[in-house]
Amino acid sequence: MKRFRFVMIVVVFVSLLTSGCMSNSLFVPTETGVPTATYTATKTPTETPTPTKTPTATRTPTPSRTPTETATLTSTPKPLPKVTFTPDLSTEEPTEEVPATEETQEPDWAPTANSTWQLGYQPFESYSTSQCTGGHFVHDFYGLVAIAPTEGGLTWTRLDGMSYFLGRQSPNFYWGTGASSIEGMKALNVSVTFTSPTMLTVVYTLIPNEPPDCQHVYKYTGEKPW
User: Fold this and answer.
1) Cα–Cα–Cα angle for 11, 12, 18, nearest 5°?
2) Out of 40, 90, 99, 170, which residue is the most buried by the measure of CB atoms under 10 Å away?
C-alpha cells in the first residue's frame, strides 16, 4: 500500500516535472527575426504641366465710319488789303528804265537800197526729200541776183527774169514763194538769211508737179561785190 502511494507520488512528480519543462519551453519566447525593410523606389509620375492657353486677341469690330456731312462753302470774295510799299532809299538804288535803242536791238543787215549779189559757183548742200521719186533733181542756181527793198520786205530777181517777193519774217530773215521757170516744177520757194551787211545764205526749194510732197533743196552762199 505504501509502495503504491510512493509510485503514485513519483508519477505525479514526474508528471509535474514534465509538464513544467514543457511549460517553460512554451513560455520561453522564440527569437523572432527582425524583418529587413525592403525599399522599393516607387517612380512618382512626373507631373505634366498643364499647357497655359494663350489668350487669343479678340478683334473688336471697328465702328463703321459715319459719313460726315460736307458743308457747302459759299465763296465770298473779300477785298484784298491795300499794301503800300515804301522803298528804303538808304539800301536800294533807284532802277532806271533804259529805253530800247538801235544798239540794244538785233541789227538787220538787209540792204536798204537796190543792190546786186553774187551767189556761189555751186551749192554747199543739196538734197531731195524721201517723197521724191526718181532721185535728186540736179539744177544750177549760180549767178547774179538783184535785191531791192520794198514795203514789208524785199524783191528778189534772178537772171532768168523771175522775181519773188520775200516778206520779212524776223530780223535778217526773209521768205517768199512763186512760180518756177523750170519745166516740171510748179513752184520755187526762196529763203534768205543775211549774216552780215555783205554776206547772205539762200535756200532754194523746188516743188515738182508730181509727187506733190517732193522737195528738191539747194543751199548757196552769196556776197555783195559792190
Assistant:
1) 90
2) 170
Strand partners, 178: 188
The C-alpha atoms of residue 122 and residue 46 are separated, in whole angstroms, by 114
d(CA 16, CA 25): 14
Tens of pLDDT, residue by residue over 192-219, are 999 999 999 999 999 999 888 999 999 9
pLDDT at residue 133 is higher than 70:
yes
Residue 62 identity (one-letter amino acid): T
> Using CA atoms, how far apart are residues 192 and 109, in angstroms rounded to an integer?
12
Quick one: pLDDT at residue 173?
Answer: 97
C-alpha dihedral, 219 to 162 to 157 to 133, nearest 10° = -10
The helix/strand/coil state of 18 is helix
- Identify the DSSP state of 28: S
CA triplet 159, 165, 169: central angle to 5 degrees?
130
First CA to last CA across the chain, in angstroms?
215
Residue 182: partners with Cβ closer than 8 Å, 6 or more residues away: 139, 188, 206
Predicted pLDDT at 160? 87
* CB within 8 Å of 138: residues ≥ 6 apart: 126
Does pTM top 0.85 for this prediction? Answer: no
